[in-house]
Task: inverse folding
């Protein structure tokens, strides 16, 4: 218990400094929001493995490091930026270094149809009424310590606002760079709000990457809000360094006939915990929660998803696939709640894991809570190695053993990769997969 | 081309093949028949290089080389092809992509130029025509969602593209209706040639009405108990296997 107090202490004291550093003319509602969140964080404390939801993931490696909340950071070199920006990107790109928006590194020339895509701090001036109405209203700060911590330190981040009928053809890229030098340990709380009003549509890619060799803790919260008949196609690519701890919450709120798809890709970081939650709050909504993890060495990746079917005639699809090598550890928990009112729910959940080594380990747990009687819910989970019969079949046609393994591993990932509608992202993921396969080959 | 000498093999400590001797020359078609459990599948798996089977005695020479010393992919590159009894479904691996990789691995091994996408497509189209197969099959994942007959025809299609020197057909007829059987047999017959040998393994005489063998061998209790010409198959059809089976000896 004493230890827990010390762990949160660092954050409490840095909050005092942070609060003082904020401009005195900041909105009262924002100060209030942060204050309430900090109180929740203090009350909740960091979770431990005694908490059911954290049984397989210990956050001790995060809580024992005294991280600095340091907003400044070295800017990326042109070459680094080029690779993180996927070479050529045709749409809007907003770049954040240690959570702070960099106008210099960003490109946001087109602003069609009343779209706002910019920094949260800028939005606090222009759209403070919208932010007041929506920011922090969906991701739970009262129950989730990490979300509370993020809200307590919410200052900059991204705000994407699609007014009624606004359709954006080119995907919007939100790039978060974690910059820390070798001797440093830094924390950042990126915050994203996407507000899509009636009949609007956009594709958004959030990506996380590292600059420098320092220890880093990324604690991100994304709120996706889709109004009636709005479409949000959201992607998150996490490819930070192995010195990084990454905790995130993606909270999707769907109105009537709204459609949100969120695809979460975890490649980097030593410890990853993703919460992906969707609430189907209007009739006829459709939520897709897909995920992919490719981990090696001692990486630990935990995906906790939750889909709340609150209204009738909603569909949800969920496909999480993982490839684990070395001593990596994977956790998947998929909760689906079908409320008494949510008749004609159609929900499908799948988690498939491919284990490439003797020592990798996966815990998978579907959790269905169904309170309506006229629903269709299916779930399935598999954990397996490459199929020996398939390997032999390929070899007996002349393909060497290593190539056969690669082909089958790629095939396993294929049905996730092919669902990615943003081409540069698909190419980046394929490249990472091939590079990882080549590394594996050298080790063997 | 292939010479099997006193081959003993088994799986998981269980002895299955108890001294097989067989010689196959270029252009010959040999049928190996036998009841269930006689060792037919073990023989085909050992020839293809399945590592789960252990060879305890004897040797196999293929074009004068020690076959047992070669990895499965080396055997394929040296010209051995096996049509599987149960072809596996491989979701996510495109039939054409896979076949092109296989063919080019074989070409590379032989020091022949690799085929580009255009040349390969030309070859595939020509072979499809010969096999009377629909082009849609090859654009799907390997065997995924194929019917039993489609899987077997796909095996013969692979064989047509890879152009092996020695083809082993492991119970290619089992589970096929008569129309599918005729169409598979037709495909096989078009691939018969003076420099290609075939070993046709089957439980039923029926297939041999359509693929006429030069030699028929009866496998029983892990040994070849009788060899003869194509008429031996007809005897088996009339009399069954009972009259040929090895008496069960103690200690087996």
Result:
């Amino acid at each position: 218990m004493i230890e827990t107090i010390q762990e949160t202490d660092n954050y409490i004291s840095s909050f005092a400094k942070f609060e003082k550093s904020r401009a005195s003319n900041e909105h009262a509602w924002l100060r209030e929001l942060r204050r309430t969140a900090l109180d929740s964080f203090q009350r909740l404390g960091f979770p431990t493995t005694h908490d059911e939801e954290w049984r397989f993931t210990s956050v001790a490696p995060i809580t024992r490091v005294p991280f600095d909340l340091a907003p400044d950071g070295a800017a990326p070199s042109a070459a680094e930026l080029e690779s993180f920006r996927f070479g050529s990107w045709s749409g809007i790109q907003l770049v954040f270094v240690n959570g702070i928006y960099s106008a210099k590194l960003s490109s946001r020339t087109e602003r069609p149809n009343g779209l706002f895509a910019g920094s949260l701090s800028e939005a606090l001036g222009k759209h403070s009424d919208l932010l007041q109405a929506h920011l922090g209203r969906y991701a739970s700060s009262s129950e989730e310590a990490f979300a509370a911590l993020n809200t307590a330190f919410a200052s900059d981040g991204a705000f994407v606002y699609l007014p009624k009928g606004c359709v954006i053809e080119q995907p919007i890229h939100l790039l978060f760079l974690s910059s820390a030098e070798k001797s440093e340990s830094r924390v950042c709380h990126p915050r994203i709000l996407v507000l899509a009003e009636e009949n609007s549509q956009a594709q958004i890619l959030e990506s996380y990457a590292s600059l420098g060799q320092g220890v880093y803790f990324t604690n991100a919260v994304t709120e996706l809000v889709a109004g009636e008949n709005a479409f949000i196609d959201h992607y998150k690519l996490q490819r930070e360094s192995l010195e990084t701890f990454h905790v995130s919450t993606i909270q999707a709120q769907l109105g009537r006939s709204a459609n949100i798809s969120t695809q979460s890709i975890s490649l980097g970081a030593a410890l990853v915990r993703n919460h992906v939650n969707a609430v189907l709050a209007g009739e006829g909504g459709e939520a897709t929660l897909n995920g992919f993890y490719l981990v090696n060495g001692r990486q630990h990746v935990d995906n906790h998803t939750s889909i709340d079917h609150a209204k009738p005639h909603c569909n949800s699809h969920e496909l999480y696939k993982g490839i684990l090598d070395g001593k990596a550890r994977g956790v998947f928990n998929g909760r689906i709640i079908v409320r008494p009112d949510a008749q004609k729910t159609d929900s499908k959940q799948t988690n498939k894991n491919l284990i490439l080594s003797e020592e990798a380990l996966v815990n998978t747990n579907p959790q269905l809570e169904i309170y309506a009687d006229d629903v269709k819910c299916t779930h399935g989970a598999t954990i397996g190695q490459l199929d020996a019969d398939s390997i032999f079949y390929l070899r007996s046609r002349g393909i060497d053993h290593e190539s056969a393994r690669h082909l089958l591993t790629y095939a396993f990932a294929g049905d996730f990769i092919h669902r990615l509608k943003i081409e540069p992202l698909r190419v980046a993921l394929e490249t990472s997969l091939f590079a990882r396969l080549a590394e594996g080959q050298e080790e063997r | 081309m292939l010479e099997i000498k006193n081959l003993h093999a088994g799986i998981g400590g269980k002895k299955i093949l108890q001294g097989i001797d067989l010689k196959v020359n270029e252009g010959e078609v040999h049928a190996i028949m036998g009841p269930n459990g006689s060792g037919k599948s073990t023989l085909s798996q050992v020839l293809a290089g399945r590592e789960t089977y252990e060879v305890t005695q004897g040797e196999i020479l293929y074009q004068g080389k020690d076959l047992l010393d070669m990895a499965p992919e080396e055997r394929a590159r040296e010209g051995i092809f096996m049509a599987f009894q149960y072809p596996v479904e491989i979701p996510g691996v495109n039939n054409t992509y896979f076949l092109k990789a296989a063919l080019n691995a074989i070409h590379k091994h032989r020091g022949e130029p690799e085929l580009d996408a255009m040349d390969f497509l030309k070859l595939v189209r020509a072979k499809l025509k010969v096999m009377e197969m629909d082009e849609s099959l090859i654009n799907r994942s390997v065997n995924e969602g194929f019917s039993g007959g489609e899987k077997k025809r796909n095996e013969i299609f692979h064989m047509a593209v890879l152009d092996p020197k020695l083809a082993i057909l492991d119970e290619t007829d089992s589970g096929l209706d008569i129309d599918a059987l005729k169409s598979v047999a037709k495909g096989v017959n078009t691939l018969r040639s003076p420099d290609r040998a075939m070993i046709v393994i089957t439980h039923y005489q029926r297939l041999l009405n359509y693929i006429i063998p030069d030699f028929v061998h009866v496998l029983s209790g892990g040994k070849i108990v009788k060899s003869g010409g194509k008429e031996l198959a007809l005897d088996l059809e009339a009399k069954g296997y009972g009259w040929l089976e090895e008496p069960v000896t103690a200690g087996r």
Notes: The longest helix of chain B spans residues 95-110. Residues 248-252 of chain B have pLDDT under 50 and may be disordered. The interface with chain A takes residues 48-51, 71-73, 75-77, 81-82, 84, 87-88, 90-93, 98-99, 101-103, 105-106, 109, 141-142, 158, 162 of chain B (CB under 8 Å).
